[in-house]
Write a structure and sequence with these properties.
The protein is of the alpha+beta class. It has 6 helices and 31 strands. Helix content is 15%, strand content 38%. The radius of gyration is 40 Å and the shape is elongated. The relative contact order is 0.13.
Length: 492
């Protein structure tokens, strides 16, 4: 028994001496590869996404990724800008870059408007004499009539006298008949009405009045048995073949638009700006622009809300893909690629966005390459490594072309209940917003960057635009005060 114990102790001692020899004699462990001639010396091993996690040997990071070697002389130093990413990691991240470029850019301005009957396609029918309506054949506003349809019959003593004179002159000279005919026309009778009255041969019979055009009855100003005065508009007839869309535009966007510019409706139909009204809305402080829309199929109805996009004036500006922009609470920035795995986070000032591209006001130069895929992972790497951010010059002026045109889905009015200046948010009670299916309700909403809420006060009435941010959340995209603060919070 004692012999067995002695043999076991002796074997353990031999194994321990052998292990000590391999650990301290300079022989390479089996797990470490033998360095080849000319190979660079490894300084340390680091996690791909967290350079603060360092080890003296290869292994796995806390995220389960293989540690990567940092060779002697290649540590992040004074000669590098920003941070560096190994080639194999870049391949795994799928990083793609695109150069900033100067191009002709026409930002698209979203607007919301309302459909109206085209007033230029409206005809008024009225009798310029005192009389009484005998019978109505078209009795309601909104009715559709065809040219030549009988609308109503009436009797007027003045016109009966003029008609009697015309009948007495029927067989006299053409000149006298023309004078009598012109007198009847001056009372508002069309030739069809005159001929119908003449054919009866009785000047005291009710006179019929016919539709002068095909269209919709947009105004009805008489009633059966009612009195007609000289200034009474009996009917207003409007052709629905074309409709007006009148939209609100904020004054700050006025320099971007002009008559004749293209307008694309949400339906895909394209028209243009027909007229820009000279006066501002007293309550909403917006300007109105008008578009003429074809409506042969009668699909547009008066009072209908419509969404459209105005293609604004174009200029040559510096742009990058909108996807490259990393939007943060206090700044917008991009990841600039310097080649050979070297990157730098750079602050930028952005302007208008359209068709997947965004104007860069400052922070980049033409030809600089920005990351358009994998930029969020690289931005995290920049934050982990403590790399400095290249700041932009905030003193540069922003032109109208460069102002961000944020997409607004709809406009509404609201009363401010409370204001959080630090968070940049408002608690409001807003009016109904039919474009997005919202009823009247009270809620908190965030204002997008660039909207100044510092001068707003509780109880104030505002007009605001509403849209979605990149996270799909509804935010305030535009804001204008409507009136001064009130003691009582009126309904919006």
């Amino acid at each position: 028994m004692n012999a067995k114990i002695i043999y076991a102790a002796t074997a353990a001692l031999v194994m321990g001496l052998a292990a000590g020899y391999f650990l301290f004699s300079g022989a390479a462990p089996i797990s470490q590869p033998i360095k080849q001639s000319g190979e660079k010396d490894v300084d340390y091993w680091v996690a791909p996404m967290d350079p603060n996690y360092r080890r003296d040997a290869p292994g796995k990071s806390p995220m389960g990724m293989d540690l990567i070697p940092v060779y002697v002389g290649q540590e992040a130093g004074a000669n590098d800008v920003g941070f560096k990413i190994p080639a194999n990691v870049l391949a795994n991240l799928g990083v793609k870059v695109e150069a900033a470029r100067i191009e002709e850019f026409a930002p698209k301005l979203p607007v919301t408007g309302k459909a109206y009957y085209n007033e230029e396609q409206t005809s008024l029918i009225h009798i310029r004499a005192v009389g009484w309506v005998e019978k109505l054949f078209v009795r309601s506003q909104g009715a559709t009539v065809k040219k030549g349809d009988i609308l109503f019959t009436f009797y007027s003593p003045e016109i009966a006298t003029a008609l009697s004179d015309y009948l007495q002159l029927k067989n006299t000279s053409q000149h006298l008949r023309d004078i009598a005919h012109s007198r009847l026309e001056a009372y508002g009778l069309a030739d069809q009405s005159i001929q119908s009255a003449v054919s009866n041969g009785n000047s005291h019979q009710p006179i019929p009045v016919f539709a002068s055009r095909s269209g919709v009855v947009t105004k009805l100003g008489i009633f059966e048995g009612g009195r007609i005065a000289g200034d009474t508009v009996a009917y207003a007839l409007t052709s629905p073949d074309t409709m007006w869309m009148i939209a609100d535009v904020y004054p700050k966007h006025l320099s971007l638009i002009d008559q004749g510019q293209a307008v694309t409706l949400s339906s895909g139909n394209v028209t243009s700006i027909d007229y820009i009204y000279p006066d501002a809305d007293e309550k909403l402080q917006t300007l109105k622009v008008r578009m003429v829309l074809p409506n042969e199929d009668r699909s547009l109805k008066a009072g209908q809300y419509l969404a459209a996009t105005i293609t604004t004036k174009s200029k040559d500006v510096l742009t990058i893909p909108t996807l490259a922009i990393i939007r943060l609470g206090d700044m917008d920035r991009v990841i600039v690629a310097h080649g050979e795995g070297q990157f730098e986070a750079a602050e930028v000032r952005i302007g208008a966005s359209s068709d997947g591209r965004t104007v860069i006001v400052s922070g980049l130069s033409e030809g600089e390459e920005v990351v358009v895929s994998g930029q969020f992972m690289l931005d995290s790497e920049s934050s982990f490594s403590g790399a400095s951010v290249r700041l932009t010059d905030k003193s540069l002026p922003v032109t109208d072309m460069q102002k961000a045109v944020v997409e607004s889905l709809a406009f509404a009015t609201a009363i401010i209940n409370s204001i959080d200046q630090e968070e940049g948010s408002l608690n409001i009670t807003h009016s109904e917003i039919p474009e997005i299916g919202w009823p009247v309700m009270t809620m908190g909403m965030q204002a997008v960057n660039g909207i100044d809420i510092s001068n707003l006060i509780e109880g104030q009435k505002i007009k605001f635009g509403i849209g979605k941010n990149s996270d799909g959340m509804y935010v305030i995209t535009d804001l204008e005060p409507v009136d001064a603060a009130t003691q009582n919070q009126d309904s919006p």
